[in-house]
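Hi R.,

Here's the chain you asked about this morning:
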Amino acid sequence: MAKVIRETQDLTYLNWSHVRNSSGTAGTYLKSSSIIGGHKKYYKLSNFDLEKGIVGHECINEIIVDRLLDILGVEHLEYELINADIEIDGNIYNTYLCASYDFKERGESKASLDDFYRLNAQPGESHYDFCIRMGWREYIENMLVIDYLILNRDRHGANIEVLRNARAHTVRVAPLFDHGLSLLCSCSSDDDAKKFDIMGDKQCNNFIGSRSTFENLSLLSTKGKTLKGILEAKHKEEIFKDLEGVLSDFFIDTIWNMIYGRYKVYENL
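And here is the predicted structure, written out as tokens:
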């Protein structure tokens, strides 16, 4: 289970770089990295505002989705959520951030799926058909289901990566990652969450299929049976363990109702 470190850590030594949100929504997302025990560790913050500081909760979404994917048996990048003091432009902020280790194996290089498709697709071949030809049906169909369950707004072609080992002549898709822009990411308060349609079909930035995560379920070869794991009501406690006080009780209940309600739609396809 994804770990939550609630005791404040001193991470003021990290240097943060600005990365504009590629989905087109307002906000700046800051990233950093360090070397721990010879391994590279990556850190990222929720939405950062120069005047208000860290105002988003995207990093918490990463932990929620991490745990959901564990339950559903989907390979993914593993995150931990850390309560930390950080420094940005001379100012100290206390926030929750998420951290992960590099998923590349020795000898592998990575490329975005959109670049890999551009170089290797056959004339007129769709993004979906290309992935099926490459032997990635299970991966892609799992991804389409997950993106529907969490209403992932940002599955563009650079948020799916291909890992290549030229010496070993292997090509694989990287574990699923980057789920911050999902769930209630557009809600900054309980009042916002009350107005949010948790079952709504919103326009999303999908590299595979259409801009509708619900319509993309029509691409599944096995309706309602794509995932290995089964989500049950009892899993709410596991998914939100140690997040009490990090998110409001209303947010927790609303996010759970969203995930479980959408799961029931998928299950009954």
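One quick note: The radius of gyration is 19 Å.

Cheers,
M.
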